[in-house]
Amino acid sequence: MNRIEVKDLNVYFGDAHILKNINTEIPKNTVTALIGPSGCGKSTFLRTINRMNDLIPSFRKEGDIILDEEDIYSPKYDVASLRKKVGMVFQKPNPFPKSIFENVAYGLKVHGIDDKDFLHQQVEESLKAAALWGEVEDKLDNSAMSLSGGQQQRLCIARTIANNPEVILMDEPCSALDPISTTKIEDLIHKLKNDYTIIIVTHNMQQATRVSKYTSFFLNGEIIESNLTDKLFIEPKVKKTEEYITGRFG
Ligand SMILES: Nc1ncnc2c1ncn2[C@@H]1O[C@H](COP(=O)(O)OP(=O)(O)OP(=O)(O)O)[C@@H](O)[C@H]1O
To answer: How many angstroms is it from 66 CA to the middle of ligand 1?
Structure first.
């Protein structure tokens, strides 16, 4: 079953045509990797899925993005509920300058939940799901800024999970992390894919092969090839894909 269907998507920033005739489907509860050279539109594509590009005045789009059979750009679609449904994890960990507890409880509090026991239970569950609980359970009141970069990124994933999303967008979530933290995040992605639909932008092709079931190769704003990750990397159908994955450009 598909969670997201993208139909004839074109994106412009002013006169620049950034995404060109994108047609793709993102299956439910799987990991899909987006690969391609710098500037080819991977992040822009990711940001159309939670309507973050709407914040850019020169942004314009044609075509449809259907999430669970609803057009997310329809005037009647509630953007706040979209952002709850579609969580995002960024390249650099970006915890709030608050305690570990407050970071995870933040989204719930914004949505009016103030029952202390319930909040505590949700924070614990989210931190467990993000494989961070054991490292922070006795220092929940410490500042999130006191955590290592890898711990901060898992905290940001816990913060996202606490909102009970269906889709998690990850924009190069490991690029600022050391190899050990990267392995922890990759292990976490493996675990999370059972419950969430994950789309990850990565420049690391080994990472794409390790974490994803499907991969889409972007080039100059177009999807050149999409396939099962194993197939795309072992038997690419398009010459440009082969050239990119074998390091001949990008
Ligand atoms: N806010 C913006 N205004 C104008 N152009 C933008 C804006 N954001 C991105 N672009 C342009 O859109 C194109 C695609 O950028 P995008 O960040 O989506 O690429 P990317 O594939 O994610 O690159 P990278 O791998 O380097 O992060 C680039 O040419 C970029 O300059």
So the answer is: 23
